[in-house]
């Protein structure tokens, strides 16, 4: 849900910026065990973080939905063969071969072009030094920080992939909109996260919206009424998302905010999860399952605990199966393989 004017958008951004806090754990100042480093660009491109932030600040004022889009972009890139900027690759050649972005589970992915804009600025400052995959991570980090969340120290040094994964690979690796607690905990456990970190990383749903074609899938489930869903909220979803076909353009274009403050990175998502006001199945179940509810309640009551757990989970996700050294490349253009 966007502000009705640029002035309102700018006002919202200023509030977000004032809310920003910085979380730096003692164990985050060391070199990452995946071969990444917290001072990787100290000599080769010392202004990289400054350039990324300045590039995004004005865009976030003009389009307050951008932070949620960039955070989702990072998640979807890192879920498919690791954080390697493969989601940015466009098809090439005369014969269109479906690439990762063509996966139905990547519906609604936006702002990939922003990574290219930032890349252009960095190529001027320090040619062939900063990878597109590092830019994705830094952009997602800024998306969290500039909307009121923690400024997360992230290790850098990722390289970009030379391969172009197919849509089928993305289809098999990205979680469906119907994912439950079991599948989400298993997914993040595979990336080295604790249950607390898994619940924290789900807090990214505090930003942005959910498209109605994903909400409607819940109503197809015969057991939907047994989920942790407030009856009044279920009525609200059915009004906002009427029973279109899941493939309908109307269902794809209609959406509901993820929580009451969908432009601000805060703990409102957890308040809604406890109350049964989750848009997706996981958003409802996470507030009721005995494995996850204690952390949902803890985060709802203590923003600092949420920010610390989210920061830890963010670093683990962004370090998953990264390419470093000679295993990858630094692309000169983000949407093509050199």
From TrEMBL:
Residues 35-338 form the Plant heme peroxidase family profile domain. Transmembrane segments: none annotated. It catalyses: 2 a phenolic donor + H2O2 = 2 a phenolic radical donor + 2 H2O. The active site is at 76 (proton acceptor). GO terms for biological process: hydrogen peroxide catabolic process; response to oxidative stress. It is found in: Secreted. Disulfide bonds join 45-126, 78-83, 132-334, 212-241. The keyword Secreted applies. Residues 1-25 form the signal peptide. Its EC number is 1.11.1.7. Ca(2+) 1 binds at residues 77, 80, 82, 84, 86, 100. The record marks 72 as: Transition state stabilizer. Belongs to the peroxidase family. Classical plant (class III) peroxidase subfamily. This is Peroxidase. It comes from Arabis alpina (Alpine rock-cress). The lineage of its organism: Eukaryota, Viridiplantae, Streptophyta, Embryophyta, Tracheophyta.
């Amino acid at each position: 849900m966007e502000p009705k004017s640029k002035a309102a958008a700018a006002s919202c951004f200023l509030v977000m910026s004032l809310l920003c806090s910085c979380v730096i754990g003692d164990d985050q100042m060391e070199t990452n065990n995946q071969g990444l480093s917290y001072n990787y660009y100290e000599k080769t491109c010392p202004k990289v973080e400054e350039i990324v932030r300045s590039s995004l600040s004005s865009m976030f004022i003009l389009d307050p939905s951008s932070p949620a889009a960039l955070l989702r972009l990072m998640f979807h890139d890192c879920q498919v063969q690791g954080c390697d900027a493969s989601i940015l690759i466009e098809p090439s050649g005369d014969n269109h071969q479906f690439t990762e972005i063509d996966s139905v589970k990547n519906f609604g992915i936006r702002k990939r072009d922003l990574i290219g804009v930032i890349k252009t600025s960095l190529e001027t400052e320090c040619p062939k030094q900063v990878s597109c995959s590092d830019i994705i991570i830094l952009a997602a980090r800024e998306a969290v920080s500039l909307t009121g969340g923690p400024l997360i120290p992230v290790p850098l040094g990722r390289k970009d992939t030379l391969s172009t994964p197919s849509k089928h690979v993305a289809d098999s690796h990205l979680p469906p909109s119907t994912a439950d607690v079991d599948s989400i905990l298993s997914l993040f456990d595979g990336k080295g996260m604790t249950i607390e970190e898994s619940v924290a990383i789900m807090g990214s749903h505090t930003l942005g919206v959910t498209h109605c074609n994903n909400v409607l899938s819940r109503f197809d489930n015969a057991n939907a009424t047994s989920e942790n869903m407030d009856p009044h909220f279920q009525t609200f979803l059915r009004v906002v998302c009427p029973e279109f076909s899941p493939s309908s353009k109307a269902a794809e274009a209609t959406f509901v905010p993820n929580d009451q403050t969908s432009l601000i990175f805060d703990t409102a998502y957890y308040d809604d999860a406890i109350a049964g006001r989750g848009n997706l199945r996981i958003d409802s179940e996470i507030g009721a399952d005995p494995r996850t509810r204690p952390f949902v309640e803890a985060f709802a009551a203590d923003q600092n605990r949420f920010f610390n757990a989210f920061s830890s989970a963010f670093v683990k996700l962004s370090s998953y199966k990264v390419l470093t050294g000679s295993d990858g490349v630094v692309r000169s253009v983000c949407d093509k393989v050199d």
